[in-house]
Amino acid sequence: MKVYVFKDHTALSRYAAERVIEQVKQKPTSNLGLATGSTPMELYSMLVAATQAGEVSFKAVRTYNLDEYLGLGADHHQSYAYFMQKNLFDGIDILPENTHVPVGVDDISQAAVSYEALLRDSGGIDLQILGLGANGHIGFNEPGPELSNQTFKVTLDEVTRIDNARFFNHLDEVPREAITMGVGSIMRAEKILLMASGSGKADAIYKTVAGPITTQVPASLLQLHRDITVLLDEAAAAQLDPQFYTRR
Ligand code: F6R
What we know:
Strand content: 15-25%
Oligomer: single chain
Structural class: alpha/beta
Bound molecules: fructose -6-phosphate
């Protein structure tokens, strides 16, 4: 794991944006793996700005999102499909048919099998963007006795539901289940950027980077990936011994 600590969230988002732009310039037909949530929002607005400035084009890029809530259709304003449309896809020149978000409605078991097949047939993800849950989750792979090798239906951890309640009117509205790429699906990406900011992520970052590899901290499995860069702000890096990171 390469671990870089930046002065703030904007600086780490800028580094991530440069990496995405470089990836797309080097391989215009790149497959990008994408996350939702607060963490990548600034990265996405930087990609929108770079597209509008003519610095990069996503015309031949295909995207694959990590996860989606069960029961929220693409037009629901808290669905991840809606989030991606609003925060990224509407502002870049990507073709709608090249964007993929798992479908959290209908027959989820079938949707999971289809999504995993789609990932396999895509030729693989070139660059995967990840955020980190306060409980160490990646995608919606929650801590537990085992992790999944492929896309599956998951029951959300209460910690995750409480964290994500900030996006809803009430905790009761936060779905209890979701569809998510498995840790195996994530680990098959060529390159990974894991982004984390703020003191709420410091404990999870300590366990991810410096702790034992355990299914109780799904992100700790990333220690085994051959090309992962962890991007942190000062607050998220607060519990890490400086031997684990480089300042940027
Ligand atoms: C979202 C996802 C989640 C989030 C994580 C952090 O697609 O897969 O793993 O990345 O919950 O969320 P934020 O960025 O809102 O702190």
